Structure formats: structure tokens, C-alpha cells
Sequence to fold (850 residues):
Amino acid sequence: MNFLSRYLFLILLTFVLTTIITPVAAKYPFSVNPASVTRVKQSNILLRGKQFYDEGKLIQAAQIWEAAVTEFEQEGELRNQVLANNYLGVVYQDLGKWEAATTAINKALELVKTVDDGLLSAQVLNTHGNLELKTGNPQTALDSWEQSEQIYRKLDDMTGIVLSQINQAQALQNLGFYRRGRAELEQVAVDLEKLPDSLLKARGLRSLGNTLQAVGDLDNSQKALLQSLNIAKKLNSSTDVAQVLLVLGNSAKVSDELTTALDYYQQAAAIAPDNRSKLSAKINQFSLLVKIEQPSSALQLLPEIKKLLINIPTNRFSVYSRVNLAQSMIGHGVLKVEYKELAKILATAVKQARELKDIRAQAYAVGQLGHLYEQTKQFSEALNLTRDALTLAQRIKADDITATLLWQQGRIYKARGNQEGAIAAYSQAVNNLKSLRQDLVQMNPDVQFTFRDEVEPVYRELVQLLLQDVDNLAPQIKQQRLEKSRQIIEGLQVAELENFLRAACLTYQPQPIEQIDKNAGVIYPIIIDNRLEVVLSLPNQPLQHYSTKVSPQEETAVFNQLRQSLNVAFPANEVLPPAQKVYDWLIRPIEAELEKSEIKTLVFVLDGFLRSLPMSVLHDGEKFIIEKYNIALTPSLQLFESRNLPPQQFKALTGGLTEPRQGFSALPAVETEIARISQLIKNQTLLNEQFTRPQVQNKIESAPFSVIHLATHGQFSSKAEDTFLLTWKDRINVKDLGKWLKSPSSNLRNREPIELLVLSACQTAKGDNRAALGLAGVAVRSGARSTLATLWTVQDKSTAELITEFYSVLTQDGISKAQALRQAQLSLLKNPKYQHPYYWSPFVLVGNWQ
Fold:
């Protein structure tokens, strides 16, 4: 099941077991607190509409409530007019009728002012907030939900308070106020604890668990969900037990605890009292069994799943259940399922969606039928179905579905040899992904986790198309293709970091390299299939391109050989063969151009396994590249701000550990390292017992520093939650630095970004071939203009020598950070004790190299 289709499926209001975060208070009138709803008198016509809505028959529900509005207007029943318009606002959103939803909700907002009913006002404000968030107005949504919370507080309605707070946290996250959003969720937890055990409390905790999961706080999410489960079991509510078990299963899947996830799904299926919950659990179980390659166990579930599908009435849930079942089966040869059977399942979904006149569901089902035809290489039929689905999705402005369908269309064009059509479709898909970026980065980690397999390929496949035979094109067209390729490579880097951080990155307009540094060249390697494609940007010159055939097996062999040889247990000369091989791939084709252009600094925007290799160790057969060039890394020039502060104005916060802590070894030379820094620049120091998480936070938030230098153990990982720095008693996570450095405290509100962040004893996680993403994530999250760190933990005495030399050179006039690092590395290379690349090569400069 592809990424955005899963996003569409999960976001449905009718799918009670959603695993992404949707504004829960918007559903309050229907499913969260029925007892409160009965306080507002409802006529039979409203209840009939609600029955259709609960069954997933959205068109029928809308028709009933449209008639209700007319009836109540004629009878002058204001309260029921408000309710009918509010309900219409909800169902129109589900149907993608945004203008109609806006009209209905605005009418409800206007009418409710004439009705003395606080609960009704709060419900309308909730629906209004939901619409505003979905249509890209998080500030207006926040205002509405704050108003609804005030009303619920006056009514002493704790459930309403909690749900409004959860919604506010989502709006704050969308606005980029992550700390305020987290504080709001912490308050939710406090307010929930005040409630006696009840189903309302269990459901509130489940909503809180979903929300915490969505913002990446998996530990606290687990606590909330387990508490919800215990209460539901205590109250013997099998429905609530099944629902929270499903969410726990999704949470375990996020954490890659697949056996645990499977167990939760099995428990949910066993206890679920209704067909919908049971079907959801069975399909999740089926999908996971396919994922872990247990096809026989998966196929054993099929008869019961099909039986459940037959007993589910025709509604949106039944459509999506069929599509998701089929998607779990498509492309998995291990299942040995006949494609005719898959086509029948999807054809039924399409038929049902058309009967419902549900355009969104039609687009979803028709698009997936097109995907099936794509898999069977029936490209004409696949293209026609994909176009039909695109027309439907674009009619209701469903950008999430559109992005998936454009990618699908691009693949089909590519398979048919229509390169221009494929490039156009892929380009539109990427543009849609960019427009959805804010939604994507706020998503549940389960959806986020598919980034590598289901979002990243859109970018890579587009670059592959753009660079195909590019050197044989006319010069003008070639430059256009290369420029677009560079933009896509940078866009991929930004999207990947946002996925890692689950937060939008601050981006800048990329500047031409000659405006940044007339003596720097930027090298963009990108790994595609069996090739390593490289785009080179030199000042005042056309972009250049070169390509090398490199199989995945060769990539792995060279990577392993080079990383293994960068260990003092091996002779230094064993580094040379793999280091020369990477040099041949990246630098050899442009040696003459670099010399001719008088390049002094090489800036790498690295991809894949290259990010975990130190570029300084590349070797031309005679000398290391660091002996010829300054070296710097940047995730993307879009994340690069070129302003900098003269080193003479540096003020530093230095901190670290010299003693063994929490299972990590001692770093005795750290004390010398920090003492030497103190002699070169002004600083405040936190050492050992003083180097605690609260102390670091207090120092950063209370005083401006241009340099933060932390000499302590740490780890960079491909998972943000596993990227940390060690303190005396605890750890500082990657996200903590960003929060502290962007603290809203009044005296530092307009603080400048820190000039330099130094992490001098960290390492990339072993066995994690994307761990260097954690280093880039720290650099971006901290907001530092430059970050100096290590790819592995180096002997602390040699580190102290290098760091001392780095600051000594940096404080001289006219010296860039990249120059200072190069000189420091060369000082070790020339020292007989530290000549081995193990000592000097792991130091990398990320960001501003000037």
C-alpha cells in the first residue's frame, strides 16, 4: 500500500481505529461524548442522517441534513438549524466539498450566536477548527479550539476540555510551536488524571496516545495507551479494548516490534464485538504477515476477511477495506494470489464507491485498480484508470491522492517509453509532495516510516529520468535538466531531514555558489539503481555531469572495506585502495576542472552510504584530498545561511564529561580540551556533575552564546529518538537542543543562530547505514550555522590536540571554519603518533564552511 494512499485511508473520520492524528474534538458531536449530545434536542431527521453517517453512507447523510436545514428554517427551529448546518460542515469535509463545508459552518457560527447554549457553541467551534486546519489555516483553527475550551471549562465538561486541548496541540505543531504543543499535551495528561476511571477517560487517553505517537513521543504514547487499555478492561468494554489494542499494534509496528504488533492485532480481532473493528484488526494482521513474509499464515486469514467484507454494508469503510486488502496483496509474489481475484476485489470497491457517489472513495479505488493494471503491465488500461482517478481527485482538490496518482502516471509513461510525459508527471508529483510537506512532517511515525520506500523513490526516479542521456542533449536543454536535477536532489535532502525530525525545516532561497564563495565547488552525488550520478556546480560556470556504473554489491564492499580499514587495528596503507576507489567515483573526472577554477573548498551534498564516509580520507594515489582542499558538508544549500560572526566575537558554552558514566568510558583529556578552549575564547564551563540536562538547558536559554562546545559521548542514528548526547545523569535528545536554542524567553527572543556547534566525542550508530542522517538532523535542528562533529569516537587525547589547533587557527583573521578544520586535521596527519586516518578523518564540518 503506497504512502499517500495509506494517508488517505487512515485520515477517514469513519475509520475509528485511525493511526494518524485527526482533530478529535471535531468528532465530539458524533462519537466521542454521546451523552453530551443528548443535551441538545435532536429531531428524528437529524438522527436518521447520523445513522447514515455512522454507516459510512456520506451522500445519504448529507442529503438528509440538507433537507433538515430547509425544514428547520421553515419552522424557525434555531437550535436544530445550528445542528444540521454543523453536521453538514462535517460531512462536506469528508466529501471534499470545502466551499460547501465553509458555507454550512459559517451559517452555524452565525446562528449559534442567537442561541443561549454553550455546549452547542463549543461543538460548532470544534467543527470550524477542524475545517480551518484541513484548509491550511492553523492559527484560525487554534483560535476556535481555544474558544471551545473556554466554554467547556465554564460547563465543567472535562472531556470537552481534554479534546479541545488535543486539537490545540495539533494546531500549535502545524504552526511550528513545538514546545507549546508539547506543553499542551502535558496539560492534557494532567487533566485526564483528574477524571475518575470511565469510558470517557479511556477514550481521552486513547486520543492522547494517538497524538503523542504522531509527534514522535512513543514512550509517553505507550503509557497513555496502556492506561486506556487497563481502564477499558476494568469497565468490560470490549469495543474500547479492541480499539486501543489496534492502536497499540500500530505503535509497536512503528517501533519495528513486529511480533508484538502482530500479537496486539490478534488480540483485537479476538475481542472485537463488531464486524468493523474485527475486519480492521484482521486486515492489519494480514498486512503485517505479508510484510514479515509469512504468506501461508496470511492466506489462512483470507476466508474470514472475505466473509466479514460481505457482511459489511456498502459504505466508505467497506470500500477502503477492500482497497487496503488488495494493496497488501499487490506486488507480493509470495502470496501467489491470482490477479483476477485482486481485480474482482477492487472492481467491487469501485462499484460501491460509485453507488455511494463518494468522489474521494472513487478516486482512491479507481487509482488502485489502475495500479493493479500497472503491475500486470497492461499499461493502456492502467493509464486510462489513473487519468480517471486523477480527474476525480483534482475535482475535490484531494492533493494527497493526486500526488500518488501523478507518481503512478509517471511510472506508466516511463514504462511506455514516454520520457517527457514521465518527467512532467513526476515533477507534478514532487510539487504536490512539497505542498503537502507540512502535513507529511506532522504525520504519525507509522506513515513517516515509509518515507524511504514510498516517498524517496519519487525524487530519485525523477532525477534518474532527468539525467538519462543528458550529456547528449543540446547545451541549453542539458543545463535545464541539470539545474532541475540539482533542485530535486536538494529537495530530497530537505524532505528526508523533515521526515527524520518530524518538523518542517527552515529553508532559504539557494544562492549561486559564486555569491557564497567564489573558490568553492559543490558536488552532488546521487545513487540511482546501478549508477552513481554526480552534478558539479562551479562558480560562474555551467553545471557539469558525470556518471559511473557502480553496483549495490560494489557500493557495499567498498563501504565496508573503507570503514573497516579506518581503525588503528589495521595498517594505515589498507585505507588507500577503497579511499582511491571513492576518489575515482567522485573527484577523478573533474580534477582538471577543479584546478583550472582555482577551487579551494569542496562542499559535498552527500547521498546514501557516502554520508557515513569521511570525504577527507579520499586519496588520489599520492595524497589525501584534505592535503589539497578544504572539505565541508551541507544537507542542502536550501538549509544554508551564509552570514557569519567574526571569531573574535565568539562567546562559548563548553561542557562535557571526563569520568565514566552510564556505561560509557571516561574521557580524561576533555578537561584539557576545555581548558585550552578557555584560553582562546571567552566561555562558561559545565564539567562532570555540573554537566546535566537542566544545567545545559538553563545556560542556553538564559544567555546568548555564539559557540556551544560539548565534549561528551553521543550517538547519531537514523531515528531521532536514538540520536542523543550523554550528560552526567541523563541524555540530551536531538530535539532538545532545538527547543532550547529557540526558547521563547523574552530576553533572547530575537537571538541570532549560534555560529558553531561542536560535538567532539560522538559517533554514528553501528549497523545503521543511514546514521549520518542524525548528524545532519542535529545540525539543522540546532539552528547552528556550522556544526563540527565526529563520525566515530576518537581517542580523546588526539581529539584534544585537534580541537585546540582548530580554535587556535579559527581565531586568526581571514580564516574560514573549513580552513581551520583542514589545518587541524593536517596537524595530526603530520604527527607520527596520529598519522593514521582513524585519528583525523572522522571530523566533519556541516553547514556554513566560511
Notes: The first strand starts at residue 520 and ends at 528. The radius of gyration is 29 Å. Residues 647-847 form a domain with the Rossmann fold fold (CATH 3.40.50.1460).
